[in-house]
Amino acid sequence: MxxxxxxxxxxxxxSPLPADIVxxxxxxxxxxxxxxxxxxxxxxxxxSSAPLVFGRWxxxxxxxxxxxxxxxxxxxILHPHIGPTAASxxxxxxxxxxNFVAGDHLVFRRLAVTPQGAxxxxxxxxxx
Length: 128
Fold this sequence. Notes:
By secondary structure, the chain is mostly helical. The protein has two domains: 1-39; 49-110. It is 71% helix and 0% strand. Helix 1 (2-11) runs antiparallel to helix 2. The N and C termini lie far apart (49 Å).
């Protein structure tokens, strides 16, 4: 989606840098929705709340931002030695792997489920 949108915007006479920024931002949001619904869909509670979804969205943005910086560092170090395409592919692969692990352990981690009125882990009595 990102590359198709980038190509479309450039064909419509957008400058490449703003076109790439728009393509990355929009594709990142679509990726969050698809990850929330499908990739990590088994981790959604039956009754999601806006704060829960917003929290996951915010953690996802931070994760993607961090892995994008990581990918850029990989690209910057390697492109003089292996060329831009290979460096970009390797940065994307490694960044994607880090992002998947972050999604599993941070962004879309399983929520603790306690029965109604039960004490949260670490407490001995139910909250009143």
